Amino acid sequence: MARVVGILLAAVVAAATASLLAPATAELTRVEHPPKTEGSLNILAVGDWGRRGQFNQTLVAEQMGLVGEKLDIDFVISTGDNIYDDGIANTSDPLFKECFTNIYTAQSLQKPWYIVLGNHDYTGNALAQQDPAIREVDSRYLAIAKSFIVNSEIADFFLIDTSPFYLKYWNSSKYDWRNVAPRDTYIETLLKDLDNALTQSEAPWKIVVGHHPISSGCEHGNTTELQQLLRPILEARGADMYVNGHDHCLQHISSRNSPVQFMTSGGGSKAWAGKFKTTSDKIEFIYDGQGFVSMQLSKTEAHLVFYDVAGNILHTYDSTKTEDDEH
Q1: With CB atoms counted within 10 Å of each terminal CB, which end of the chain scores lower, N or C?
Q2: So where does Fe cation 2 get bound (predicted)?
Q3: What is the pLDDT of residues 171-188, one digit of tens each?
């Protein structure tokens, strides 16, 4: 099993490196990750986790390992804020192992982790988490680019860098905006690339992943800039779900004016008990505690499960579509 996992990780890293070395284009970097079992794809999603095992991070990791083994997952999605409080200083920073390698030790979690950056990652050396040298420390850690696409046949995952959208971050000198500034150009290009990629996608499921919530009933609430700039593209281009972290909770919210479902998985460690906001969308489920989400996908069915820190099932979401459905 270890040899198979090693071969898979090596192949993914090689493909990602080849993509990064390719001539610059206007398109988002793509990573091919076909499901290991024909017709089905199983993944976990977790965010806001990197606290050296503290705030029940270790307990969440243990339950992820158990669920990951049961589902025989293909990979893990991280919704950002990977290393607290201020990311990592460089690729040899011991915090990386203390927050990631030494915590997610279950055999089932020795799969690729596809990573977006959160605002806390940006207050450190944001480029270090994307440096190929970080994968020499732990080959699972695939922060391929600031924004990129994971093509997995059954679903396309569009991992989007949302921190630059947040205008108030630009008023602070502590954020690492290398390769991002100027803000307006960066955002305009990213939105155009995402719009094109969603339009061209032929996958049965289109799942967009970002750190910050678009619609949220937890502490941070709605992100105005994403409501204005990102949400219209998701609705116009037939995205099925938007998965985020940032709010340290678990939630499922239904859009009142489109089929898009908003899923928060930001319960990887420290949670915000009792801190809520209002949103004009429909809150289907909200839990102000720690946990994570699993996704089981086929061409016609999606089954999501929200787990708490003890592995209890808190909420499920099911969606079906015919193979003739088009976005």
Answers
A1: N
A2: 81, 119, 211, 246
A3: 999 999 999 999 999 999
Annotated binding site for Fe cation: 48, 81, 84, 119, 211, 246, 248
User: For residue 272, what pLDDT is reported?
Assistant: 80
Per-residue pLDDT, 10: 52
- Answer whether 307's CB lies under 8 Å from 313's CB: yes
How high does pLDDT run on average in the chain?
92
Which CA distances in Å does 135 have to 68, 122, 126, 223, 242? 22, 19, 15, 32, 27
Q: pLDDT tens digit string along 243-264? A: 999 999 999 999 999 999 999 9
Give CA 22 to chain center in angstroms. 24
For 83-149, the three-class secondary structure string (H helix, E strand, C coil) is CCCCCCCCCCCHHHHHHHHCCCCCHHHCCCEEECCCHHHHCCCHHHHCCCCHHHHCCCEECCCCCEE
Helix (H, G, I), strand (E, B) or coil at 169: helix
pTM check: above 0.85: yes
Instruction: Give per-residue pLDDT as tens, 82-92.
Output: 999 999 999 99
220 noted as active-site residue: yes
Structure tokens at 169: 């971050």
Residue 22 has pLDDT above 60, yes or no: no
Its sign, for the CA torsion 222, 223, 228, 230, is negative
SS3 283: strand
Annotated binding site: 48, 81, 84, 119, 211, 246, 248
Catalytic residue among 212, 220, 252, 315: 220
319: phi then psi, degrees, rounded to nearest 5: -140, 140
